[in-house]
Specification:
By secondary structure, this protein is mainly α. The chain contains 11 helices and no strands.
Amino acid sequence: MSLSAACSSSNGSGSSETPADFCSQLQGYVTKCNVTDPCTVQTSSNCTQLASALSSQTLAAYAQCYTDSSCGDAGAALAASCFATATKNLTPSAAQEKLATDYCAVCTVAPETAAECAAGFYSTGGDGGTPGVGSSILDLSDSLATQLDTQCVAKIAAGSSALVCLSSLGICAEPIIAAAVTLPAACTTAVVVDGG
């Protein structure tokens, strides 16, 4: 079972907006489906920290996708496909909008305007477009968005090049996100297959 299956629920509610609700649903899914995958089991046991790093919209998307999923590989595959689609429809929260606006205030490169930059900040790049700077952080919580804004964007010098802005945000954001989103050891251990 994949990590996306580890971040699942199946209680029929169709909604999960708090980490506690989400974790309860995940633990219910693990029990109901008799999940034995170490990554999923460890994630359900230590769910609160991971769930707290995700936005309520992301938690709700996971929950909605797994509400009607059956147990087993077919259900997990269907839910994973659903999740990929559901997360494309996330919309930025007020804290995430502020992060985009603040980043674009110092990192807009002509001919793009700050408003155009902010409008495309969380673009997923669908239909062959280029993903926005924030496309990979849209699923994070408001508290993480605020941390990235105050600790990372605040350090970028106004008028910096697009490359400097992007690398500065990435270098600063990586340890903040890594500290908030710590996966269980079973999810990060590589599986070695003997080819001989």
